Amino acid sequence: MAKIQKRRAMHWKLYIKLKCGKWGDFVISDEAMFYFGGSYGRRRVGYVRMGENVGDKLKFVKRDAFARGFMAWAAVSSRGKSEIRIIPKRTQVNSEYYFNKVLKPFIQKDVPRLFPEGKHVMTFHQDSASS
């Protein structure tokens, strides 16, 4: 229950920051794993709610246990998108790596391009996933 209450509190703070046109100075980032292969042919993949009936026409494709892939990080805002940063294989992404190899280049290269008017005031929102 505490997790749900924490999430609600975080979303309320986000809503307050976004109202009244302040969304224009908002930057959202996320990272994701992208996998190669694992499906040779057509795939039918879908998301259903828990307890919802899954029809026979919808198949779930399992990801290979050791599928080849890579991790990427990017950010978007109403002013454009950041450069996509690829995280090298077998990299331990801890706070030091994330700060020095992802956030610093973002602040040095992308923020001046997205906010060229000299006032680099923005609200940066990232997911709160643990590493």
TrEMBL record:
Source organism superkingdom: Eukaryota
Q: Which InterPro entries match?
A: RNaseH_sf
User: Could you tell me what this protein is called?
Assistant: Transposase
Question: What Gene Ontology molecular-function terms does this entry list?
Answer: nucleic acid binding
